[in-house]
Design goal:
This protein is of the alpha+beta class and about 475 residues long. The chain contains 9 helices and 12 strands. It binds adenosine-5'-triphosphate and magnesium ion. The site of adenosine-5'-triphosphate has 23 residues, from helix 8 and helix 9.
Length: about 475
């Protein structure tokens, strides 16, 4: 596996090398151009001076005579190789004695024969380096009489350029080296927080939720750390809630068990004769067993719900009847807690094909909350109506309400509010799950301190089969 660190560093260095090479090529080219141009200008100046001299002092004699007699006078100061050609391009004289065969074909000579200045850079067989040649027309009063040609080796210029190139190359190598080190350090600043997160995540995976990755920067990796921390908090919180739930359930289970056990002991210890006591005791044992059964059912239900295995037994449900039953069932509690409990059935309510017990469970859970969170003297309103092919159930209370930061979470498993009346935090999550299975929607609106309104909407044509 190639680590991100190496990948980053290699990419950085690659980019730097490309940049350095491009830049250096550009610089060296510019340097070369300017050196060549300089040399060319020098040669031009010299050749022009020489040609002027010739025109002024020598043009009375023929070119041929001049070559024979005064040959070195007008170009004497020139360090370059000098050639003098006639108007046919034939070389009459060469200062170092080489006579090129095809001088007349050289572009610089051609240009000079046409009256212009000419330049040429190319190879000659008597020099390892390239040479630069400039040609200039030699004139007398009658017109062009020949061509003056200066040729110089590019050896020294090229050596200078080579030296400059070497200097730049070293600068480039150092730049690559230094930026390589910097990119290593930079990729380290990216990688080391990642490594910390990986090690924290590993610890979490093995069950240690007390470790928390440190957030170093507020970037993507910082967000990853935040998310991981949030996840760990959530897991710890849920675990705690589950434990609380289990312990509170076990506590509840113990009460009927103690009572059953107590009565069984009492009855065995010789109260067989007392028929009244015996029947009382047996009755209590029976009742408590029933209570236990219900509790165990509920627990099973809950575990099914947690593992997403709620089943629905669909039948035709008389909703009006169900609502009336709820009213009867809860009215004693309303009276006891001094809450004004009102049930309003608006118009005809058609039957609904669904699981009756689950539907009842939904309303009991919601109404239980309303009663729980509404102080004495308050009001709970249960309103049912049929609207556009669906049944709308509204449960409104004048209780303590839910704060805006808690409201989005109330339907989550194990979420319970800060209110002291909150218990296990599963009521609404079970409702939500059941309503989803029924194809309906579940909305909760609330104003803190004013009250809460839960709205359940169930579609009437939900499949149709019984
Ligand atoms: N009518 C309401 N008024 C004020 N707060 C409410 C109301 N209904 C729900 N809540 C808030 O939403 C939380 C979640 O409700 P939920 O019914 O899921 O749990 P619970 O009532 O605390 O416990 P459980 O229903 O499992 O016994 C409650 O703890 C409470 O803070
Ligand atoms: Mg509840």
């Amino acid at each position: 596996m190639r680590s991100i660190k190496t990948r980053l560093a290699v990419n950085f260095i690659f980019i730097i090398i490309i940049t350095v090479i491009l830049l250096e090529t550009l610089i060296i080219n510019v340097v070369k151009q300017s050196y060549y141009k300089n040399l060319e200008n020098n040669l031009y100046n010299q050749i022009k001076t020489s040609a002027d001299l010739y025109y002024r002092y020598f043009s009375d004699a023929t070119l041929y005579d001049n070559v024979l007699n005064n040959v070195d006078t007008f170009w004497k100061q020139v360090p370059a190789q000098v050639e003098i050609l006639d108007t046919n391009g034939e070389v009459l004289m060469d200062s170092i004695g080489v006579i090129p065969e095809n001088a007349s074909k050289m572009p610089d000579v051609k240009a000079a024969l046409e009256g212009n200045t000419g330049k040429w850079v190319g190879k000659v067989d008597y020099d390892d380096n390239l040479v630069m040649a400039v040609s200039y027309p030699l004139k007398s009063r009658e017109g062009t009489v020949g061509v003056l040609r200066f040729i110089t080796s590019l050896r020294e210029v090229n050596n200078d350029i080579k030296r400059i190139f070497l200097i730049f190359m070293w600068i480039g190598i150092i730049a690559v080296f230094v930026s390589g080190i910097i990119s290593m350090v930079m990729s380290n600043t990216i990688i080391s927080p990642l490594k910390e997160i990986i090690s924290a995540a590993k610890k979490m995976a093995s069950g240690n939720f007390t470790t928390r990755p440190v957030k170093r920067y507020d970037d993507e990796i910082g967000k990853l750390a935040d998310t991981l921390n949030y996840m760990a908090d959530e897991i710890v919180k849920r675990d705690q809630l589950k434990n609380d739930f289990i312990s509170s359930v076990s506590h509840e289970l113990r009460t009927p068990l103690t009572s059953i056990k107590g009565w069984a002991v009492t009855l065995r210890e010789g109260s067989m004769g007392d028929v009244e006591l015996l029947s009382d005791g047996l009755e209590i044992i029976e009742k408590e067993s029933d209570r236990l059964t219900v509790m165990v059912e509920e627990l099973l239900d809950f575990s099914k719900f947690v593992s997403g295995k709620i089943t629905m037994i669909k039948e035709q449900v008389d909703v009006e009847e169900l609502v009336k039953q709820l009213k009867m069932q809860l009215s004693p509690r309303a009276e006891r807690e001094n809450i004004n409990f009102e049930v309003i059935i608006e118009g005809e309510i058609p039957p609904l094909i669904t699981d009756e017990n689950r539907l009842k469970q939904v309303f009991i859970n919601i109404l239980d909350n309303s009663f729980k969170f509404t102080p004495a003297g308050g009001k709970v309103l249960f309103n049912v109506m049929c609207k556009e092919n669906s049944l709308v159930f509204r449960i409104k209370d004048t209780g303590c309400g839910i704060s805006p930061d808690e409201l989005p979470h109330v339907k989550e498993k194990f979420f319970k509010g800060k209110n002291s009346n909150s218990s296990n935090g599963i009521g609404l999550s079970i409702c939500d799950e059941i309503i989803k299975l029924m194809g309906g929607t579940f909305e909760i609106a609330s104003v803190l301190g004013k009250g809460t309104e839960a709205t359940v909407t169930l579609p009437l044509n939900n499949g149709g089969e019984v």
